[in-house]
Amino acid sequence: MDNLSYLSNAHSSYIDSLYQSYLQDPESVDFGWQKFFEGFDFGREAEGKVAQDGNSDHFLKEMKVMNMIYGYRQRGHLFTKTNPVRERRKYYPGKELETFGLAESDLDTVFNAGAEVGLGPATLRDIHNLLEQTYCQSIGAEFVYIRNPHKVKWFRERMERERNTPNLSIETKKRILKKLNEAVVFENFLGTKFLGQKRFSLEGAESLIPGLDYVIEKGAELGIEEFVIGMAHRGRLNVLANIMHKTYKDIFAEFEGRAFDESKPYGGDVKYHLGFSTDVETESGKKVHLSLCPNPSHLEAVDPVVEGISRSKIDFKYNGDNTRLAPILIHGDSSIAGQGIVYEVLQMAKLDGYKTGGTIHLVINNQVGFTTNYKDARSSTYCTDVAKVTLSPVFHVNGDDVEALIYAIGMAVEYRQRFHNDVFIDILCYRRYGHNEADEPKFTQPSLYKIIEQHPNPREIYNKKLLEQGSVDASLAKEMEKDFRALLQERLNESKESNTYEPNPMFSGAWSGLRMAKPEDFEETSQTAVPKDALTKIAEKITSLPADKKFFKKIEKLFEDRKKMVQNETFDWAMGELLAYGTLLDEGFRVRVSGQDVERGTFSHRHAVVKMEDSEEEYVPLCEIQKEGSANKFDIYNSHLSEYGVLGFEYGYALANPQSLTIWEAQFGDFVNGAQTILDQFLVSAETKWQRSNGLVLLLPHGYEGQGPEHSSGRIERFLEQCAENNIQVANCTTPANFFHLLRRQLKRDFRKPLVVFTPKSLLRHPLCVSNISEFTEGHFKEVIDDAFVKPKDVKRVLFCTGKVYYDLLEKQQVDKRGDVAIVRVEQVYPIPYTQLKAVKEKYNKAEEFIWVQEEPENMGAWPFICRKFRNSSFNLEVISRKESSSTATGYSKQHISQQLYIVGKSFEDAAGKEVKKSVVKTTKKVVNVD
């Protein structure tokens, strides 16, 4: 039995099905198969006449040769010469002839199966040589699992025709040598001039530089005008210098510490986290824009940001044409295998709301993670096995064979442009030093690093190859090194003489006309009111359904109720939100909303997209609002079940276009926990680290409704503990009109700040949570809303609160007619509206107590922040809350009610600690939706 009998059987069944198709219609199979079956039929006739000559087993062997061809296509990547410093792991069954039921004695036999690989009838020797050269040299190809036969055929024919062997011009080879020289000498120069400084060098993986260079060259040739690049810190300085063309002088200035300017209000970041953008010109004279995104040490965190930036630019700059811009993600082997964000991002690749036309993934596979051996870094065969999730092809390439890398990259870019799918290039290389240049890798990898110490760098290997070919002069590499090193020294000298330099300006391109915010900006009122005629017109449009379409009865009733709101000139939360979007669209802005179930809303309140009753057809009322001559558009997408990935994507989307109201909504506020890395490393800190503003809006359903610890708190305290330098805005609104103005304010200022809004659940249908039309047409966003019922002279106690708890307190105040207790709503918790709060303090000058009231435990919610900010003020604030807790809320309904009654009752106690009137306060609301 053959060693691959199971494979042989599968292939034989497939071949038999092809043969049956051929018998019915020869044109129904590929040309190669037609020729094979023509020979097969001729042979079968001959077999019947001369079976006695001993050749009757030839046709069975034809099948075995076909099995061998398919075996190489499917498993050849396991037997390649792709690892420059280690022996590859052994796999069984192997690729020996015996594996397929063939022998050395068959090598000179002619087989019609040669037609399958483009040879026509050919000897087994020639067929075998072609397969060995194509699938088992410096490139290992994984592609047969792709379920689209056209893609598989494209790869198969392309690779077998050229045998995966590059045929480069002398000029191309010289350019490769030049880029390798820059990569190698740059790292060596930094290592000798800045001893002991971290740089996370590319040494061992220098082939990345000519590889990236060729991505740009080939991409430009195929119509790509812009690349957005994301990568971790390893090799970033080399990429910045030799691909992005950031000046050597500026990079050296950062090493010298001269980039720091104390007069600027920025904290900055380490040099190997910084981004850069530039325009380059290819060898063929084409202009290409390059952007390298800044990224923290969370290695793959930049991936969704890159995709969001790319999609935003495709939407706005290229009118949806994704062949003109391509994202490039540069991964590490351990991070691509170990970081879940990679999976979240890959699952976006073909989704309507997030696709970018295919990402080019380059993996710097240096076979070690920090100090961890690759055998401890993953369970999968390859670090790139996650690519199979989206049926993306993978090329494993020996990093020491730079021409093979160039060839694979060229094929990958062609594939991306033709089929608009992701593609992976796994560059097997090594790391010359430890995790950083001061690290000792022999502590954990003694055997490997003995080999690496003696291993020549890629430039030396390639120069030797070119010399042996006679492709270059023996002195060329030496002259290149000498000239380039002299240039670097010259730029180093200049950097020591110059002062600080200005990095890429933020407020250019799409950000032209905007600026950095100043503290006094937060004391000014933005004009966000909308004329009544315009507002009513929009309200009528978004509450109307086409008469010729059939909708669900509940949807028709919902829209009828909304029409009544227009007639009554009173709007609930959902209408307030939709009117904000509609008015911005009418003014020429763009609105994008994404998140889990955002089209209808988690609590079934939004219904921005409605379905027909008898089909999957959709109707989006807000899409009917279009400013004449404007490219404005309303986009709303239900996301896949991802927070980290989708929030990162939307952050990137907002980063690329500040003229879009870009919103991410969490299904429940606590779901934002899963995206904490994006919050910490990008949203709250990017402006001070990288001088990059952002206007992203987060909607986080929040409020204690008895839904247990998982769905009560959006973790206000976590956002507030990161508030400083006016970096973000944190709001917890209590009226539809105030929410309306808050959303519109995002695009009405000439600066951008992230906005975090803690949105309601029960208030979506609370009878008191409504706003009159006048509040939309005459008002503006109110950071503080004062009590409208009490007389200042009668007030003895002032309750400050934020969000939904206001309505519980209001009910108690109104039922008991407590004119001595004022309830003041802090709608914007940060930046703290000091001016308005001081005015409140002065207004209630007879008050004896000022108390912060919150639903959250004492160690959570806004109180820890408020306590810290007002600790030396004249307010002398006390707090009423749930007692401190390690969990956000109780899971028991009765306990929840008891706690809520305590908070409300305590807020209205007299000085002796007793309630003035014993009234029953309804604190339980109907739970609209739970998970």
From TrEMBL:
NCBIfam families: 2oxo_dh_E1, PRK09404.1, PRK12270.1
One term under GO cellular component: oxoglutarate dehydrogenase complex
A biological process term (GO) from this entry: tricarboxylic acid cycle
Name this polypeptide is given: oxoglutarate dehydrogenase (succinyl-transferring)
Physiological role: E1 component of the 2-oxoglutarate dehydrogenase (OGDH) complex which catalyzes the decarboxylation of 2-oxoglutarate, the first step in the conversion of 2-oxoglutarate to succinyl-CoA and CO(2).
EC number: 1.2.4.2
Chain segments annotated as transmembrane: none
Cleaved signal peptide residues: none
GO molecular function, one term: thiamine pyrophosphate binding
Keyword line: Oxidoreductase, Thiamine pyrophosphate
Chloroplast found in the keyword field: no
InterPro entries named among the record's database cross-references: 2-oxogl_dehyd_N, 2oxoglutarate_DH_E1, DH_E1, KGD_C_sf, ODO-1/KGD_C, THDP-binding, Transketolase-like_Pyr-bd
Presence of the UniProt keyword Acyltransferase in the record: no
Cofactor(s), names only, from the UniProt record: thiamine diphosphate
Matching SUPFAM superfamilies: Thiamin diphosphate-binding fold (THDP-binding) (SSF52518)
Domain of life, per lineage: Bacteria
Organism (species): Arcticibacter tournemirensis
Family under the similarity heading: Belongs to the alpha-ketoglutarate dehydrogenase family.
Annotated ranges, domain Transketolase-like pyrimidine-binding: 571-766
